[in-house]
C-alpha cells in the first residue's frame, strides 16, 4: 500500500480518501512517505478526541528522534518548539503567552482588526478580478501577528515567504532552509528589541527571559523558538480558515444569502465552517510512549500517530450528513483547533479575524463570485494544512 496522503488528488479534495480510510478502520496503520516507514492514522471523531488527550501520546520530537539518524537540517527553533513538548515544559511555556490570546485580550484587538479589514477591502476594485487569498486572507493575520510581535512592515514579505516554505510538502531542503532563515531573523529581532524596547508581545517574552529567576524563566533558545512559533502559527491557520470559509459560502448561494440577511448568525456559523473544511488537515507529530489501544486498534510503543481533524470533523457518527454545510448545525464540538492541553492557543484571535473578514466581505461585496470553476482552484501541497494557493473572485461593489 502506498501513502494515501501523497496522492495529488488528495490535496484537491481529501475527504473521499478520509472517508474510505475511516470506513475501513477509524485508526489504521498506513505507509508514511518512502523507506518503509509507517504511522497510525486517526480518522474517527471519537478516536481523535481521545487521542488528543491521551498522556501516552507524546509530542516530544527531540526525544523520539534522538537515536534516529536523519538527513534533515531543521533549525531547533522550529523542530523543538512549544508544540513539540510535553508537560511540565509545555505548561510552563504556554503560560507565558496565554494572556495575549484570551477572549478578553482579543476583544480589545477587534477595533484594530476591523480597521485593517476595511483598509484591505478599500483597495479592492469596484468591479473586476481580485485574489481573496493574496489581498485579504494572507495580509490580515500576517499584519496582526506581526504588529503584536513588533515585526517591521518592511520585513513582512520575507516572513510570509519563509512561513509558506515551512509547509512546502515534498521539499525538505526548502523547509530546512526556511527554518534557519526565520530563526536567524527572529534572533536578530530579539536583539534589536532589547536595544529599543517597546510594548509588544516580543517585549513580554524578552522580559520572561531577562527579568525572571527560577524555573519559569525562559532560556534564550526557548525565547527565539516561542517567538518563531507565534509568528508562523499566528497566521497560517487563519489564512486557510478565511479562504476555505469564503469558498464554502461562495459555492452555496443559499447559505451566503442567509448570512447576508441575518449577519448576526455569522459568529455561530464559524464553527460549522471550521468543521466543514478544517484549516488543519493533520495535527502535528505525536508518538506512543507506551502501548495503547485506540478504537479497536492496538498501537505499540514508539509508533508515530497522525491525528486528522479534517477527517474527524466529517465523521458521520458525530456529525450527520457531514459533507453538507449546515449553518444551523451545532458544531461547537469540532476538532479544527485540536483538543486538550495542546488546543490552538490562538483560536480566539483566528475566530475574530475570520468573523470580521467574512462579515465585511459579505456586506461590502454581496455580488462577489468565483472567477474560475471550483475544480480549477489550486490547493497547497501539504497534508498538515488545508488551504488554497489563490481564490480568484470577480467583485462588484454595491
Descriptive keywords:
about 400 residues; alpha+beta; five-stranded mixed beta sheet; three-stranded antiparallel beta sheet; 17 helices
Strand segment count: 10
Provide the low-confidence segments as ranges: none
Query: Can you summarize the main beta sheet?
Result: 5 strands, mixed
By DSSP (H or I, 4+ residues per run), the number of helices equals 17
Q: Name the shape in a single word.
A: globular
Cα distance, first to last residue?
Answer: 53 Å
Note down, in words, how this protein is organized.
This protein has 398 residues and is of the alpha+beta class. The protein is built from 17 helices and ten strands. The chain has helices at residues 8-12, 15-24, 45-53, 61-64, 76-79, 89-95, 103-122, 132-137, 139-149, 156-165, 172-195, 201-210, 220-250, 253-261, 266-276, 309-312, 347-364, and strands at 27-31, 38-42, 57-58, 127-131, 286-288, 292-294, 297-299, 304-307, 369-370, 392-396. Helix 9 (139-149) packs antiparallel against helix 13 (220-250). It is globular and about 60 Å long. The relative contact order is 0.18. The mean pLDDT is 90.
In short:
The protein has 398 residues and is α+β, with helices and mostly antiparallel strands. 48% of the residues lie in helices and 9% in strands.
Write the layout of secondary structure elements.
Layout: H1 8-12, H2 15-24, E1 27-31, E2 38-42, H3 45-53, E3 57-58, H4 61-64, H5 76-79, H6 89-95, H7 103-122, E4 127-131, H8 132-137, H9 139-149, H10 156-165, H11 172-195, H12 201-210, H13 220-250, H14 253-261, H15 266-276, E5 286-288, E6 292-294, E7 297-299, E8 304-307, H16 309-312, H17 347-364, E9 369-370, E10 392-396
Parallel strand pairs: 2-8
Antiparallel strand pairs: 1-2, 3-5, 4-10, 5-8, 6-7, 9-10
Amino acid at each position: 500500500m502506498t501513502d494515501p496522503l501523497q496522492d495529488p488528488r488528495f490535496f484537491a479534495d481529501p475527504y473521499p480518501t478520509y472517508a474510505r480510510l475511516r470506513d475501513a478502520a477509524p485508526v489504521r496503520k498506513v505507509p508514511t512517505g518512502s523507506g518503509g516507514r509507517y504511522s497510525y492514522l486517526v480518522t474517527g471523531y471519537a478516536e481523535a478526541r481521545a487521542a488528543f488527550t491521551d498522556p501516552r501520546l507524546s509530542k516530544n520530537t527531540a526525544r523520539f528522534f534522538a537515536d534516529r539518524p536523519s538527513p534533515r537540517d531543521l533549525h531547533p527553533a522550529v523542530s523543538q518548539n512549544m508544540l513539540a513538548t510535553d508537560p511540565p515544559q509545555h505548561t510552563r511555556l504556554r503560560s507565558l503567552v496565554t494572556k495575549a490570546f484570551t477572549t478578553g485580550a482579543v476583544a480589545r484587538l477587534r477595533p484594530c482588526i476591523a480597521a485593517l479589514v476595511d483598509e484591505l477591502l478599500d483597495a479592492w476594485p469596484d468591479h473586476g478580478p481580485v485574489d481573496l487569498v493574496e489581498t485579504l486572507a494572507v495580509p490580515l493575520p500576517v499584519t496582526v501577528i506581526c504588529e503584536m510581535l513588533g515585526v517591521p512592515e518592511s520585513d513582512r514579505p520575507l516572513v510570509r515567504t519563509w512561513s509558506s516554505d515551512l509547509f512546502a510538502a515534498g521539499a525538505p531542503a526548502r523547509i530546512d532552509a526556511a527554518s534557519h532563515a526565520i530563526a536567524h531573523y527572529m534572533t536578530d529581532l530579539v536583539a534589536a528589541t532589547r536595544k529599543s524596547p517597546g510594548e509588544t508581545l516580543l517585549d513580554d517574552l524578552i522580559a520572561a527571559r531577562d527579568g525572571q529567576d527560577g524555573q519559569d524563566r525562559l532560556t534564550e533558545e526557548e525565547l527565539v523558538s516561542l517567538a518563531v512559533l507565534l509568528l508562523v502559527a499566528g497566521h497560517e491557520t487563519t489564512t486557510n480558515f478565511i479562504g476555505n470559509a469564503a469558498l464554502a459560502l461562495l459555492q452555496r448561494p443559499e447559505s451566503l444569502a442567509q448570512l447576508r440577511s441575518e449577519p448576526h448568525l455569522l459568529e455561530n456559523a464559524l464553527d460549522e465552517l471550521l468543521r466543514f473544511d478544517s484549516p488543519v488537515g493533520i495535527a502535528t507529530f505525536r508518538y506512543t510512549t507506551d502501548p495503547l489501544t485506540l478504537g479497536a486498534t492496538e498501537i505499540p510503543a514508539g509508533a508515530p500517530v497522525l491525528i486528522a481533524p479534517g477527517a474527524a470533523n466529517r465523521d458521520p457518527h458525530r456529525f450527520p450528513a457531514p459533507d453538507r454545510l449546515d449553518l444551523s448545525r451545532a458544531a461547537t464540538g469540532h476538532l479544527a483547533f485540536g483538543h486538550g492541553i495542546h488546543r490552538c492557543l490562538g483560536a480566539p484571535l483566528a475566530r475574530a479575524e475570520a468573523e470580521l473578514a467574512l462579515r465585511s466581505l459579505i456586506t461590502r461585496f454581496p455580488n462577489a463570485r468565483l472567477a474560475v470553476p471550483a475544480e480549477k482552484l489550486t490547493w497547497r501541497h501539504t497534508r498538515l494544512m488545508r488551504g488554497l494557493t489563490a481564490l480568484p473572485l470577480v467583485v462588484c461593489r454595491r
